[in-house]
Amino acid sequence: MHRILFQSRTHQFRNCGHFICTHVLSLLISVLGHNPNVAAQVNGPASAANPPWLFQAGGSLTTTYTDNVLVADVSRESDLIGTATAVANLRGEGRRGSINATANLSFDSYAHKSNLNSERYNGLIASDVDIIEDMFRVRANAATQLQSTSDSGAQPASERSIGQNQAQVLTYLVNPELHTRVGDGFEIRANYNLSGTGYLSPPAGPNAAQASDTLTQVGVLTLTSGPSFTSLSWTLTGSIEKTKRLNTPANVQNTGSSDRRNAEAVIQYRMSQALALTATSGYDEINEPTLNQDTEDAYARVGFVWVPSSRTNINLEGGYRYRGPNFQADITYAPREWLQLRATFQESIETQQRLVARQLGGVVRDDLGNLVDPITGLNPNVTQVPFDISDQAFRRNSAQLSLSGVFGRNNYSLTGQYETRDVDETRSDQWSAQAALGRQLSPHLAADVSFQYAKVEPRTATLGQGQSETISGLANLEYQLGPTVYASLQYIYQQRQSTIVDNYENVVVLSLTRRF
Fold first, then answer.
1. What torsion, rounded to 10 degrees, do the Cα atoms 356, 357, 359, 364 define?
2. What's residue 484's pLDDT?
3. Which DSSP string do the residues of 372-419 spell out, in sequence order?
4. Long-range contacts of the stretch 257-260 (C-beta < 8 A, 24+)
5. Contact, 267 vs 282, CB < 8 A?
6. Rounded CA gap, 403 and 435, in Å?
7. What's the whole-model pTM score?
8. Is residue 246 within 8 Å of residue 216, measured between CB atoms?
9. Long-range contacts from 476-479, C-beta under 8 angstroms, 24+ separation
10. Which residue from 395, 303, 385 is spatially nearest to 349, judged by alpha carbons?
11. Distances from the Cα of 388 to the Cαs of 138, 195, 381, 467, in angstroms?
């Protein structure tokens, strides 16, 4: 499994990522394995306190037809692609930790474009181990996926190599945390976060990412009020962050390192069981070489937290930060199984690599123990972020809304996102929306349809090459032939217009899957 997720590479960053991820994950599995209760779960009945370990392997054979194999504007060519895929999934939870891992290794064989024949892989691992109970924890996550590097470049409707505008994105993090309580007065948390993002060569064609690999180290010390503080509570935080750029492409300027320092104080006054007032103040020192703006300044926000029930949580704050107005919002409303709503708004200063690392650290487990995106509740793709992959730092405003639910044999999901990025008073905007509906038609037959829309405009030389607009739709039927055998038929349509491409594509996918 490690070879699938983290193939060894020749340069320093990739060898470093391979070494850290492999050895830390081995340590986590070793610690979990020495829990006698967990070991019993693997080989025998599980107890109620310790859910069973689940390991599932499988394979699939897929035939894909596309009427635009190279995603070209003119001289469109059709092709048949045969794909063999091996799949492995592991999920386990013990008294002192948990691990989720999934890995896919595929080989694509093109009937006409044999120069694109290649293997591709993707995977996601999230693990959390309590080394010293309630005192010292270690979290280690890693992910890799084939991604497009430019929003305005060619992008296939189905997952495959096209020989251009692609990179294999690898990201990982290791996060040990020490937690202790000093009487009833306060608690101390000290954690160190080592994360990395790298842009590897795709299965076919050159690495098109116009960005450096990065290695980031963050140290955070937090003091939080203890049980003796009831109505009035407080948190003091200090952090130091340093990012080093490695293996910068020849046509990209290496801007060296980035440094950030932050000190913050948060006070919360509880007016009632459901309502608390909040006040946040702090100081930022941000050194991003690609951002020609002075962001070193003090900041302050005020707001409230309202939790009228276990199903509703509203957290709003507004004030001044980054030398301008600054707002934060997080709203959750889930009164029924058929209505789950989540809305967020954030303002920050970011880079593409920093966003990828944050997304990797933000994956959560749902009620069934599966890894999901915390906003949408869908399968996470932590290596994908909007706009082009670059080294440019930017001011980011992001609003996300998700509405999902399950009713009877039906499930649905509606998500929307609006994001703006500002660099030296130039601005780019991105809108995206997705709607999905699934239904279990019979005990053995399931169907789902989805629609996606994304638009980026206007673009600047610092953030990308031009505007783009994408519309796509998908329809899928899956039939269970036996206890572990499934067949599926899928149709995908995609139309893209940008300053570089203007094309469309029809794809039909027939797949046979066996799970062991």
1. 150
2. 92
3. E-TTT-SPP-TT--SS--BS--EEEEEEEEEEEEEETTEEEEEEEEEE
4. 258/287, 258/288, 258/289, 258/351, 258/393, 259/285, 259/286, 259/287, 260/284, 260/285, 260/286, 260/287
5. no
6. 10
7. 0.84
8. no
9. 476/447, 476/448, 476/449, 477/445, 477/446, 477/447, 478/445, 478/446, 478/447, 479/444, 479/445
10. 395
11. 33, 21, 16, 11
Strand partners, 302: 279, 318
Closest CA to 390 of 286, 290, 481: 290
First to last CA, the chain: 16
* Whether the Cβ atoms of residue 262 and residue 235 lie closer than 8 Å to each other: no
Q: CA–CA distance from 442 to each of 94, 195, 491, 514 (Å)?
A: 35, 45, 21, 20
Distance in angstroms (rounded) separating the CA atoms of residues 204 and 485: 31
Mean pLDDT of 218-224: 97
- What distance in Å separates the CA atoms of residue 321 and residue 284, rounded to the nearest whole number? 9
**DSSP symbol at 150:** -
Alpha carbon dihedral 199, 205, 210, 212, in 10-degree steps, equals: 30
Q: Is pLDDT at 442 greater than 50 in this prediction?
A: yes
DSSP 210: B
Determine the average pLDDT of the residues in 165-181: 95
Report the amino acid identity of residue 243: T
Q: Which residues pair with 474 in a beta bridge?
A: 450, 492
Average pLDDT, rounded, for the chain = 87
pLDDT, position 463:
53
Q: What is the pLDDT of residue 272?
A: 93
- Stronger pLDDT, 18 or 259, i.e. the higher one: 259
Residue 417 has pLDDT above 50, yes or no: yes
pLDDT at 27: 38
Q: Are 99 and 90 in contact (CB under 8 A)?
A: yes
